[in-house]
Every structure is written in structure tokens, then in C-alpha cells.
Amino acid sequence: MATPAFSFTPSTFQKLHPAEFFRRFTTEGVRPDGRLLDAFRPTTVHHGVISTANGSAMVRIGGTTVVCGVKAEVAEPKLDAPDQGYLVPNVELSPMCSSKFRPGPPSEQAQAVSEAINRVLKESKVLDLKDLCIEEGKAVWVLYVDAVCVAYDGNIFDAALAAIMAALKNVRIRKPTYQEGTIKVSGGSTATDENSFRLNLARAPLSATFAIFDTTLTILADPNVTEETISDGQISITLDETGLLCGVTKIGAASCSQSVMKDCVQSAKKRTLQLRGIMNQQ
Amino acid sequence: MSHNQIGLRIDGRRPAELRKITSTTCVLSQADGSAYLEHGNTKVLAAVYGPREARHRALVLHDRAILNVELNVAPFSSGERRRRSKNDKRLLEMASFVKQTFEPVVIATLYPRSQIDIYLQVIQHDGGTLQACINATTLALIDAGIAMTDYVCACTAGWVEREAAIDLNYIEESSDTSEVTIAMLPKSSKITLAQMESRLHVDKLEEVFRLAGEGCKQMYEVMDKTIRDRAEDLARKMTV
């Protein structure tokens, strides 16, 4: 056997050929960070972390951390829906969370994730918007749902959606009074069941994301940032608490067979169930 | 007896008492250095990236690193939701205060032709944002291993209800009080930043300054302990 012309340290090899480096691991059924291919990273959920917000939560999935705060404000309803409030979700990927992001207007990725979450919340009718009505045609609640990513290590969609759902569950809004064109929202003393109400969530969609690596169709659950950059596509499966599908997204160049899709749905079922357990712990 | 009559403030503190401080370093996975700091209910995250290659060639200085500070306020951080644009003048001003505070302290000549990015995220606002930002930045810079001549410790002081008090909270800050933020190098007791933008009788300035300076020294104790605990923790992990 000929001696190789070059010899590298593993870290040099990883920098020069990230995909090949990664492949050496996946062929053995593991990943560089020690996880099995179908393993999700450790996840924690904290509720009510911000006292200035009506509802808040912090979710950590491995190295990805998202803080979500919900603010309720009184506004005029839209003309075509006089008895409905509205939800405004937004996901922020600031340059703080990764060296990938540059300062300036929201990146394409941030806007895409915001829109994907907006669609999930809207299409699966998480919240009956009529619950947010104060006085028909005059005043409604607007819920500003802001998810700020403070550390980005891949899989922002799962983390942001989980943070948003946990924050929405946590929301308390003061009961308003409507009298002769003016709205009064009492402040001061702490919120109790008598002077405030909680949101009535019809369902709680949560997602599980998988990356497709290589043409050999290696499926990686919960990709981190390096895995995201070398993967050829992603599958996101969103399920509610009864196991009903709320959304399936498959993006990227790699095509995958129906059986792969089926495996992902099965794995997503298990994962969302586990995530729900973590969310309900506190 | 009300709080004021026995000389306590609205949240039950004494005039020269800081709020509860919680501080940790190395909280973010991606940044080279990071810190999380709470002054009571004011919560700030700081991340430091660098020294790294400067983004714009035109800005490169051949003999030193450039500092870049960006401040971001989460929309849910204060009582009223306000979407602050990145170009909000108030935020830009605060960012430039932080930048100018650290420029003389960071030994930038050790990192020629590079850039150090400092990103600050205000998660919850309850008064004293600037002091929290400066203190968090100090911790994050130390965590990133960037050479500095000294800590920078900041503290606010003001004239609240006919008495000088330190570390004002949001209620004290907003009820027409004059507030001074100072940033100090604790070893030499030099002041790198003093900022006030409201009316204060000139006779009272000295007392307010003195108290703010004492606040900075208290702040130094807390920050130094955070750093030392972290270093000891790391040392212990390395020996195992």
C-alpha cells in the first residue's frame, strides 16, 4: 500500500472537506457530535422568563436558544374582519446569534421562518381570532409574537415554533372594559384569574426537522449549523397534540422517496410527543 | 409607615444599595465570548465576535483593531411594545457610548487589521439599560479573552425624592429625576464615561458622582467574582 502524499489533522480535514469528513461518521451510523442519526439534541423549555411581556418562554435545543415574548395591544380591527383580532409572529435572527448573520434588514432566512410560522398558526387555526375581540368593529387585541434567536446552532424552525407555542400558552391578558368609545385596561396589581384571561388554544402544533445528507439519503434528525450547511435539503413535519399533521415542508435539491417521508413522520410523532412532555413539565 | 418615611426607596432598597445582580459568562454557543447580566429586572445579553477579519476593507486600520457595537432592544422588553428600528437614533447613541467607553480600555493595538464585534440584546428593560450594557460588555470581552487594561464598571445614580440614590429602576428613572451614568476603571478610579441629560443642581453633582462611584466599586466586586468563579470552574475541568 502506498503511503498517502499528504497527511492532515482531523480538524484540517474537516475544514477542507466538510462533507467527506461528515460522511466518514455517517457511514458508521454516528455524527461528529456523538449523536446517532435519528437523535435530537437535549431540549429545555422555561416559561414566563420576561415579566414585561404578557407571555414568554425560552427554548433551548442544543446550542440554539430562542426567547419569545408575546405583547398584547389594543388596535382597530381590520375592515373585512370586524370581530377578529390578529396575530403577528416575527422571528429575529440578529448578528448576535451567529457569525453567519450580518447586521441590517431581516435576512431572507428570518423572513422565511417568520412566514412559515405565520402560516402554521393561521392555517391550523391555533387560536380563534374572535376570542381577541373587545368590541365588534371598534377594538380588538393584537398579539405581537416576537421570537428572538440569541444563539443559532441550526434548526431554528423547531426552536422558534416551540418557543412561540410555549409563550402563547403562558399569555395572560388583562380583562378590558369598553365604555362609550374608550377602552380601559386595568394595570397595577398582579394578574389573577379574576382580572385577566388566558388564551384558549385549539391545538398546539410542534415540529420536527430532518436534514437530507448525500444522495445515499442519510436522514439526520435535528441538524445543527454545520449539518445544515452541508445537507442537500430539509424536511419539516408539524404535528398537533393528537398526532394530526399541521404541515409538511420539504425543501432543497435532494429528492426523497415516500418511504423516507413515512419514516420522518413516524420519527416526528415520537419527537413532538417528547417535546410536549418537556413543555408540560413546569 | 411608608417606605419614604423610614428612608427606603420605592422597591424597598436603601439609597446606596444596588438591585440584585445575576451574572454569568459563556452563555452562548456561537459567540467567541458572551455574558448575561441582570440588574433587578433589567436583563441584557452581550456577545463578542472576534478579533476577526474586518468586513469592510475601507475601515481596516493597519495598526489596531476596530470596535463595532450594535445594540438591539427586543420588542417585548418594555411596558409598551415599540418596534425600534435598527437606526433608531437613541439606540445608535447608546451603542456609540458603549463603543467610546471601551475604545480606550481594549488594547486594540494587539489585534491589527481586525475587527471586534460587540452585539448587545436588551431582553427586559427596567431602568439602567446603559449601565447594564456596559457591564455585560466587560464580562463578554473578558470571556472572549480580549486584552483590556482594566474592568469597566458602570453605575447610575440620581436625585430621587430629595436624596441621592444609585441604580435607579424604571419607575424612579421616569418620574422626572436627574440621572447620571458613569463608567469607571476600578483599579485607577478613572472615569471613562459620564453621561447626564437632565437638570441637576450643580451642588448636588458631587454627591451623586460619589455615590455612583461607590456603586461602580460594588459592581466591580460582583463582576470580578463572576469572572474568577468561571475561571476556577474551567481550571477544575481541565485538571480532571
From TrEMBL, chain A:
Residue stretches making up the Exoribonuclease phosphorolytic domain: 40-173, 205-271
Highest rank taxon of the organism: Eukaryota
Organism encoding this protein: Linnemannia hyalina
Entry's localization field: Cytoplasm; Nucleus, Nucleolus
Gene Ontology cellular component terms for the protein in this record: cytoplasmic exosome (RNase complex); nuclear exosome (RNase complex); nucleolus
Keywords: Cytoplasm, Exosome, Nucleus, RNA-binding, rRNA processing
Gene Ontology terms describing biological process: exonucleolytic trimming to generate mature 3'-end of 5.8S rRNA from tricistronic rRNA transcript (SSU-rRNA, 5.8S rRNA, LSU-rRNA); nuclear mRNA surveillance; nuclear polyadenylation-dependent rRNA catabolic process; rRNA catabolic process; TRAMP-dependent tRNA surveillance pathway; U1 snRNA 3'-end processing; U4 snRNA 3'-end processing; U5 snRNA 3'-end processing
Major site of localization recorded for this protein: cytoplasm
Family: Belongs to the RNase PH family.
The protein's name in its UniProt record: Ribosomal RNA-processing protein 43
Annotated GO MF terms: mRNA 3'-UTR AU-rich region binding
Automatic annotation (TrEMBL), chain B:
Keyword Cytoplasm attached: yes
BP GO annotations: nuclear mRNA surveillance; poly(A)-dependent snoRNA 3'-end processing; rRNA catabolic process; U4 snRNA 3'-end processing
Regions annotated as coiled coil: none
Single GO term (MF): RNA binding
GO cellular component, one term: nuclear exosome (RNase complex)
InterPro entries, sorted: ExoRNase_PH_dom1, ExoRNase_PH_dom2, ExoRNase_PH_dom2_sf, PNPase/RNase_PH_dom_sf, Ribosomal_Su5_D2-typ_SF, RNase_PH
Cytoplasm among keywords: yes
Superkingdom to which the source organism belongs: Eukaryota
Gene3D superfamilies registered for this protein in UniProt: GHMP Kinase, N-terminal domain (3.30.230.70)
Domain spans labelled Exoribonuclease phosphorolytic: 17-146, 150-214
Subcellular location: Cytoplasm; Nucleus, Nucleolus
Keywords: Cytoplasm, Exosome
Family: Belongs to the RNase PH family.
Subunit structure: Component of the RNA exosome complex. Specifically part of the catalytically inactive RNA exosome core complex (Exo-9) which may associate with the catalytic subunits RRP6 and DIS3 in cytoplasmic- and nuclear-specific RNA exosome complex forms. Exo-9 is formed by a hexameric base ring of RNase PH domain-containing subunits and a cap ring consisting of CSL4, RRP4 and RRP40.
Name the UniProt record assigns to this protein: Ribosomal RNA-processing protein 41
Organism, as annotated: Linnemannia hyalina
Name of encoding gene: EXOSC4
